[in-house]
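On clarity, I found the account of how folds are encoded harder to follow than it need be. What matters is that the chain and its backbone geometry are given together, residue for residue. For the editor and my fellow referees, an illustration may be useful. For illustration, here is how one protein appears when written out as sequence plus structure tokens:

___
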Amino acid sequence: MTVTFDDTYEIGMISFAEVEDVDGWWYSASDVRYWDENGKITSVNSTITQLKCENGRFYYLIKLEKPVQAKKIKVAFGHPYGNQNRITVAEMKFHKWDSLEADITSLYEDNLHLQLKDTVDEDTFTTLQTRLDTKDHDEYHPDKAMLQKELNAAKALFEDSENLYKVTNVNTNITAQKDKHLGITGLNAWQPLGVSAKAEDTVIIYVGNEGKKSGENTNLQLVATQQHAESSNLSKVVTTLKTGRNEVVIPKLTSTDVERGGALYVQYTGNDPKEKLALRVMGGTEIPVLNLYGITDEKQRQEKINAYMDEIKAHVAQLKTLHRKQKGFSLFSIFQRYDEKTSIVNTTDIMLDQMMFSIPASQVLAGTNGDANKLAVSLNAMDDMMLLFYQQKGLTNAFSEKDVANKLHEKNSLPSQHLNIRYMKMFAGAFMYAAGNHIGVEWDQTTGLVNTSAVTADEQGKWQSGEYFGWGIAHEIGHNINQGQYAVAEVTNNYFSLIAQANDRNDGVRFDYDVIYDHVTSNGTGRSSDVFTQLAMYWQLHLAYDRYYNYKMFDTYGQMFDNVFYARVDSFARDTSKAPAPNKIALTLGNDADQNFMRLASAAAEKDLSEFFMRWGLLPDETTKAYMEQFEKETRAIYYVNDEARAYEMEHESAESFLNKNVVSANIKGQDRNKVSLALDVHNVDKESLLGYEITRVLMENGKQKEEVVGFTTEDTFEDTINSISNRSVSYKVTAIDKMLNRSVSLTTKTIKVEGDGSYTKENWSIETNMTSTQDQENPADQNDPCAPEKVSASYMMMDDKKDTVYVGETKETPYITLSLGKVETLNALRFVNAQDAKDVKDFTIEISKDNKTYTTLENKEVKDDNGVVTMYFNNGNDPWVTSYDASYIRITLNGYRNKEVRIGEIDVLGPTGDNVELHTANGTPAIGILSKDFVYQEESATQKEMKIPEGSIVFTGNYKGNPAYNVVLLYDENGQIIGGTDTEGNLHAEQIILAPDPGNGLLGETASGSWVYWIDGQYAASLPNKVRAELYRVDNALTNEGQRLVSDTLFVEIPETLPEIELNK
């Protein structure tokens, strides 16, 4: 709008008000142009501020950068949202230029307003006060309240500047610019100003910047915060400050009905430690600040803590008074009572080198009972813990000349920024949390920050007593300092919690080593579903390669790098060029955290850790393999290490090793169908050095041994449950592992034959469903699990091996259940216990996959109901026989159960079972001999020729259970060779037939007791081996042999030295 005056006036300010206040609507920009008496148009810089009258109405004040001589003036306003063009003005006033503001400002000698000019005296203030109190056209100066504060501040400074506003010197060493290389996302560059300001209040900030003129931009940003905020509305960068006077309106950061406002901070955005910056705030309420950044002198540090505690006591004592003063005296404020948990004046900041606490002042007093020494102990503990954590990351400020020459300090120095633990409002389910630049804790947890006792350790770092701040705080710190290249949320951050509480005992960790041993001997792929089990993988590497106790602190980067495994890991993550590459294959990192970690860990160990990671279910890709294979393989069994074993090794350097020694005693002490019990012992060695026994199950297939590690135990017994194997010969190879992680010579037990129902064990399984249940568990967050715990689905009840625990679920969609088996298994059938009836089960859709991406539907199913146990078998659609499929994932869609209750007690996956093979015996002697006369097994007819076993053949006979159309028998000797005769050209000759009852015109079916004959024609007969064993195979397709698999075998039997004559009859 354009206004023409009746004369030329010297204009300094413009004020206006809208017709009515509109919530969420304000003007944030102004543009002023004027015509002088000669008609020349000139623009003038201006600022616009929204203010509030005593009656609660808003108005706007536009201040011109300099006085203008205007005959005519044009004023434009801008809304923060560019698409808004609505402007309403109820009244506008133009104010003549008044030098009062400039005259008050000119009282100061410097831009920071810390020193008054020598010419200032009492009369100067009296004159200025009189001018401020004098009305012009029956109105005071539009900015009278703020000018009064400035004049009062100048007068107070004149009388005793130390008693009013504090000067804040900005530490230009604290900047995000220095920390970009660290790979840490949770750092904070805020520096406290010691002021808490109410939202929508105006504060004046004077900035001094050495070498810059008033009005020039600085590398300082003002940050406003909300007291007890939700994580999403904690803070806002309000403005970039200029040298000299800055007038700032504190933004409203929350719409909730609480006191709005909070502590103010600045953050330095430059990267020049020599830059000098200082500032002072006028407005708001002063709050106590303890700044110990860079204070290393113990006496000085304690003096500052003592003074701070006195300040805290005084501040807390007047909190209600400060609250009333801060709220002002209005009818509305009378009804806003003081609440210590939300009051914006009840706050304080404590600044350490690597941490800042922003918590209620009253909680500092409550947590310490006013004892400055107790506070000092707690702050020292936080310093120590942060240095312990950063040592694990290979970060320090202590570098040798050689390190500096090699530029190691450039990427391995401690962060210049700090972490910030703040008093915050928790979101649903959380106990505390970690966000982008802060860690949120609630009221009750803030006292623990100021009354924690320190950890004490001996010179070697062995824990003596104490515990740092608890699992939760360290857990959240871990989130904020996790190395991004290999971070796994809720897992790797827990490493810091563990290092802060571990005491070299197995009960000092958050996982069960028996569970760990089950996992690393499960032969599965993929991570465990339990975060603490996953954590153990990272912890074991620390135990395997760090030869000092957990709390040992090193003086220099070189010592840290040499002695701390994860210091090397994170150093290489920050600078891959420093990683070893003995075969010139350089370390590279990508986007896969697991692949990155496998490479980094092998670099730090300078060992090929392939077996370790495969034991943990992680499979290296080709790039990872190529890098790892440069190094010598790690031969120690580091996947079995535990805390007590490492402590024993460090304390018993001369302990006897089991390496390559025959020290194991093992025997099978019991067998109950598919359960085999072993008795274990060591001899001729110090049993104190024993860590445990690795158990390997040995099967025979194609005449060769097939070994599979099935367990590790620290006890002297072990039970192997062989659910998925039936009618197979089994032996066990037992290896003793000493506490130095060396392997003894293995001992193999005798061989036995076991039975089973074909069901697979479930220790590696996981389950997912879209159903919800009243049985689902939602545990509250607490100190030991501070982040909002995920709801635990009760669906695990369908795979807990407890038939009487029935899962009950429902969904509005079609229900599905996805089973992850942990590895590829052979699937023949599914078994549902205490579930729906057979008709409904048959309607389920069954899909299988090996990669959880591409699924194949199994169309042909048969079900059998046995008193509530429904078994679903699969066939190929052409033959009625059970067909096998390989799968890692099984998805079960429960058709017809949308919005209906689903009840399932247990789901079992069944592999091949039932087929069996045996060698015939007669009076305890194997039925192996020389055929006394021809055996015709197919008579000649019009459609078929005679087929026979010729007289003089060496025959082996036995019985089987299975299907003659799909089974075949092979015989092997003790050297794994197929038994047969040879011709002159060396070709192997052996034949076999499988006999079953004639089905007439029907199909051959399953037989419970059929016979087989295996023979070597006499013309090819030669010397026989000493022992023989039979293997029975089954195929899915009798014409193509598709799906061939071993289903049963026998124990070895001795072949008689003198073969008897055998006669075969139909």
